[in-house]
Design goal:
Layout lengths: L19 E5 L5 E4 L1 H6 L4 E4 L3 H20 L5 H10 L4 H10 L27 E2 L29 H14 L3 E4 L11 E5 L9 E5 L3 H7 L35 H5 L4 E9 L5 E10 L16 E3 L10 E3 L12 H4 L10 E2 L2 H11 L10 E9 L6 E10 L10 H30 L12 H22 L4 H27 L9 E3 L5 E3 L3 H15 L15 H4 L5
Antiparallel strand pairs: 1-2, 1-3, 4-9, 5-6, 7-13, 8-9, 10-11, 10-12, 13-14, 15-16
Helix pairs in contact: 2-5, 10-11, 10-12, 10-13, 11-12, 12-13
């Protein structure tokens, strides 16, 4: 073990150093633990106590390939089932693995620093401020507003922060020009061009969450169906392909290589402060390997669209991305597409398809409290800057993953009806604007349909939660949804009409077309009639509920309050 001559640096092994904050189940206090303890206590830990980007970067880049490296891939459903029923990872196997690979997990080792290139050196022989590893802080062309830091002021990162910054960069680094490194054959004028965003950044991630960290990891480990992994497949810390500045465009060898794919070359420069603290202020960030395409056999968390192009036969499916202009539940059709839909050519993640299979065989119960974390990044021009971070967490009824499921049909109906109401409200608003001789572009201003989607989201999330815990309440929930959604839609239309009728043009009924002829156009009262008719057609009123326009979801929740 070599430590750059820094006193105390040898203590920062990921295996033993308390670098990872976690929430233990039924404990509000945050505990900092080592990577070894994290795996050993995974069944006792509820969540990693970090923002979602760091939490998922740790899960995908470290925990999943690490567990596969320790246990091996699951080749049959029975192998997965046996590990699931045990309920925890084998501490003996964990200890033996870390004993054998102990030298690979030192963060500041001089010869083999974890996740870094030991002899990485820029052609200019200069280093960069540490914020180049943090997309939320200004660096170069990436300048978030209202942050009092610039390139002349380096962020002082603790070893834990530096470790997580490595993971963030390998997952969501921006594209564009990188600092040229010595031994990089494609350096020109001190720069390396053409850098792509990492594989993870091009995916709208859908992460299944279990009741504890052990279950969360297990839900993301997909049975390989007997396919033997490539003998060269290894996580980045056991691979020699990322130990130098030389990079290449290459496909992933296997799932361990893919999940820990080295899309950037990085080096941390630790320092000791006057107070004796170990920090990282200066770093190097260079070009890394470039993945030509994402293999669906290796990617567990992506939804897919079939490649209908005949020109690129190597790529069978393209991963979907999340959209910041939509609520997460509006994508339920893609989430629930356990088998590829011919009409949309969409298919859900391999993890959710596996959960559907295990529910059918009884390995996972129908009332399992499954949640999914949706995480994605929207980039700006040429992927050179991050514009939006998309994060949401929704309950997902396991029974909805069945091919023939009343709950699945109902949830898809919710999405479609909500979209129809959105269009009806926007059309009503457009009619009102026409009557008042006002024009508003669809991508500007506030539209009633979008406000309806935001308002109804609370009820949709509660319905998802109820159906996750009480799927037998489906019939009652369907009636409650129809009444509640109809009332919310009619109330939204009523507000538009009430405000519009105050206008002197509210009763305007004619205008001249381009030929100079007079033609009749709907006035606001007529538009109101058409709108109400459309809403009542969308939500037919059951006979027993026609006496009221109020509703409550509490009765269907029973003792389970959301």
């Amino acid at each position: 073990m070599n430590t750059n001559g820094l006193a105390g640096a040898e203590s920062f092994s990921l295996i033993t150093s308390p670098l990872i904050p976690v929430h233990y189940t039924n404990c509000d206090q945050i505990n900092n633990i080592s990577l070894k303890q994290l795996l050993s206590d995974a069944h006792l830990i509820e969540r990693i106590a970090k923002p979602e980007m760091e939490e998922i970067a740790l899960l995908r880049q470290i925990l999943l390939p690490l567990v596969i490296d320790i246990l091996g891939s699951f080749n049959t459903d029975d192998e997965w089932k046996d590990q699931w029923n045990i309920g925890h990872f084998d501490k003996v196997g964990i200890r033996e693995y870390f004993t054998e690979c102990a030298d690979l997990f030192f963060l500041f080792d001089k010869e083999k620093p974890f996740g870094q290139v030991a002899d990485l050196e820029s052609t200019s022989e200069k280093t960069k401020p540490s914020q180049v590893l943090l997309p939320s802080l200004p660096s170069g062309n990436n300048v978030p507003l209202f942050v009092p830091i610039h390139d002349g002021l380096s962020a002082k990162l603790t070893p834990s922060e530096a470790f997580f910054s490595l993971l963030i960069t390998q997952s969501w680094a921006v594209a564009g020009i990188a600092t040229g490194m010595k031994n990089d054959p494609l350096v020109k004028a001190g720069k390396t061009t053409g850098n792509r965003i990492p594989p993870t950044a091009s995916i709208g991630l859908v992460i299944p969450l279990g009741r504890n960290l052990f279950e969360t990891i297990m839900l993301s480990l997909v049975v390989s169906a007997g396919d033997l992994p490539d003998s060269d497949d290894a996580p980045s810390w056991r691979s020699s392909s990322s130990s130098t500045a030389t990079w290449s465009e290459r496909p992933a060898v296997g799932i361990r290589d893919y999940l820990s794919y080295p899309s950037r070359r990085i080096r941390l420069f630790p320092e000791i402060t006057e107070g004796g603290a170990l920090i990282v202020e200066r770093v190097l960030l260079g070009a890394g390997d470039r993945l030509p395409f994402i293999n669906p056999n290796y990617e567990p968390h992506a939804m897919w669209r079939k490649n209908s192009s005949k020109s690129n036969t190597q790529v069978t499916h393209f991963p979907l991305r999340h959209r910041s202009d939509r609520e997460s539940w509006q994508g339920l059709a893609s989430l629930l597409a356990v088998s590829e839909r011919k009409e949309t050519e969409l298919m859900t993640t391999s993890t959710l398809r596996q959960i559907a299979r295990f529910r059918q065989t009884g390995v996972i119960e129908s009332t399992y409290p499954l949640k999914v974390l949706l995480l994605g990044v929207e980039y700006g021009t040429q992927n050179a800057v991050i514009e939006n971070l998309i994060v949401d967490e929704i309950p997902l009824p396991v029974t909805a993953l069945a091919e023939e499921s009343a709950i699945r049909e109902f949830l898809e109906k919710i999405v479609q009806q909500s979209e129809n109401v959105r269009n009806h409200l926007n059309h009503l608003q457009k009619r009102i604007l026409e009557a008042s001789k006002t024009r508003q572009e669809w991508d500007k201003g506030s539209w009633a349909g979008e406000q309806f989607i935001q308002s109804i989201s609370v009820q949709v999330m509660r319905i998802l939660s109820i159906l996750t815990n009480r799927p037998e309440n489906i019939n009652e929930i369907q009636e409650i949804w129809a009444v509640g959604a109809r009332k919310l839609a009619l109330d939204a239309g009523k507000k538009l009409i009430a405000k519009a009728l105050q206008s002197p043009t509210a009763w305007h009924t004619d205008k001249t077309d381009h030929n100079g002829k007079s033609k009749l156009t709907p006035n606001i009262p007529m538009a109101d009639v058409f709108f109400r008719s459309a809403i009542h057609k969308e939500f037919p009123r059951p006979q027993e509920l026609q006496s009221t326009d109020t509703y409550s979801i509490t009765a269907a929740e029973g003792a389970d309050h959301v």
